[in-house]
Amino acid sequence: DAGVTQSPTHLIKTRGQQVTLRCSPKSGHDTVSWYQQALGQGPQFIFQYYEEEERQRGNFPDRFSGHQFPNYSSELNVNALLLGDSALYLCASSLRLAGADTQYFGPGTRLTVL
Amino acid sequence: AQTVTQSQPEMSVQEAETVTLSCTYDTSESDYYLFWYKQPPSRQMILVIRQEAYKQQNATENRFSVNFQKAAKSFSLKISDSQLGDAAMYFCAACLRAAGNKLTFGGGTRVLVKP
Predict the structure, then answer these.
(1) What CATH code is carried by the domain that includes residue B107?
(2) What is the pLDDT of residues B28-80, one digit of tens each?
(3) What chain A residue is nearest to B35 in terms of C-alpha separation?
(4) In a mutagenesis test of the B interface, which of A4, A23, A45 is the best target, namely the one with the most B β-carbons within 10 Å?
(5) What does DSSP say about strands B109-114 and B10-14: parallel, antiparallel, or unpaired?
């Protein structure tokens, strides 16, 4: 049973650039959520995708956008990168019909903005 | 809105001993779920235990158990017979059913296990 996978593992970008992070959910899951975890802090909710639509959004600017594909995989895009965007980006998957179902996390993508 | 607070930045425990991590939360909702996640240096967030607010019985999972005090909005995690592999960051998180599947995390507690 494949778990949640994310790519790439690490990424280095410069200010002003754009980045795309990818996530494949756990087998059987249809909902993907993205979180940002700054160093030494707990994860912060960015947004959630279900049926290829953004269903919920946290307190993040429009520079953060996403997409979900028919196979339930998802992308997180960040435009006009700032130094403060440096963080670990975590993807989590769950099953929508289960309600407040347990979310299973991927290994994360470490983004460094120089 | 909901908030989750972990007041202990770091806890140290001797191998084979017991340690308890504290977590408090604040919500006006009645239907919610609480979680403890473990994040080792490998960074992957691993589910430790889950508690449904409507259940009075405290959840247990092998050496891990919780003390859920709904009126006090407290949700502590007890790790019994601590092992070296338990060393990690532990995060308490809450999820409101009405708010969908969005997790709100605390700031984390680092657990050190001494051999």
Answers:
(1) 2.60.40.10
(2) 888 889 999 999 988 889 999 999 998 889 999 999 999 999 999 999 999 99
(3) A102
(4) A45
(5) parallel
B58 touches B80 (CB < 8 A): no
| CA–CA dist B9, B31 (Å, integer) | 28
Tokens of A101: 């179902």
For residue range A60-107, what is the model confidence (pLDDT) as tens digits?
Answer: 999 999 999 999 999 999 999 999 999 999 999 998 765 657 899 999
Enclosing domain of residue B43: 3-114
| Domains annotated on chain A, with CATH | 5-108 (2.60.40.10)
| Residue B87 token pair | 């060393």
Nearest CA in chain A to B40: A107
Q: Would you list which residues of chain B are within 8 Å, Cβ to Cβ, of chain A?
A: 4, 32-33, 35, 37, 42-47, 50, 91, 93, 95-97, 99-108
